[in-house]
Amino acid sequence: MLIIGLVVLVGGYFIFFANSQVPVQENNQQDSDSAGNSVLEGDTTTKDEMTGGNTTAQNHEVIFTDTGYAPAELKIKAGDTVIFKNQSSSQSWTASAMHPAHSVYSGTSLQSHCPDPENNDFDQCQAGNPGTSWSFTFSKAGTWAYHNHVVAGKFGKIVVE
Q: 2, 21, 95, 136 - which has most CB atoms within 10 Å?
């Protein structure tokens, strides 16, 4: 009983006094954000404020494997590019929902927009072998579901803000 009481007393002392005796240090070290902009820790300035409203477009990766797309949902900004990499053991053909028309993003059917030399219809328009990649720049805000046209049960979602 004495040992338990001693443990409770010592533990209570540290809990009560440890919070009040810890010195607070201000950290003024500069860090960089993902775009290489200088930022102070604790600074609440947004990237838009730092760049005068001009944000730099970002590149993002979505990996297709035998189990599907990863990440299954990705949030990006309008103007960002997503690189879809096929790391599966089969072909991949990334395209806008719904299978088989691929019309949700562009408003046109697969037959109308493929081939897509301007690459503005969110449709790869052909199957890519393992190890290949295809990229698409999203210009429209919204939630854009997509699928693998070769293996239609594999799908994902891009949320463009």
A: 95
The reported pTM is 0.66
What's CA 127's distance to the chain center, in Å?
Answer: 24
Indicate the DSSP class of residue 23: P
Q: What are the residue boundaries of the structural domains of the chain, listed by start?
A: 56-119+155-161
54 backbone dihedrals φ, ψ, rounded to 5°: -95, 110
The C-alpha angle 100, 103, 109, rounded to 5 degrees, equals 75
Using DSSP bridges, classify how beta strands 59-65 and 38-40 pair: parallel, antiparallel or unpaired: unpaired
Cα separation, 137 vs 78, in Å, equals: 8
Listed residue (93, 108, 89) closest to 155, CA to CA: 93
**pLDDT tens profile 119-131:** 999 999 999 999 9
59: left (phi over 0), alpha (psi -120 to 50) or beta: beta
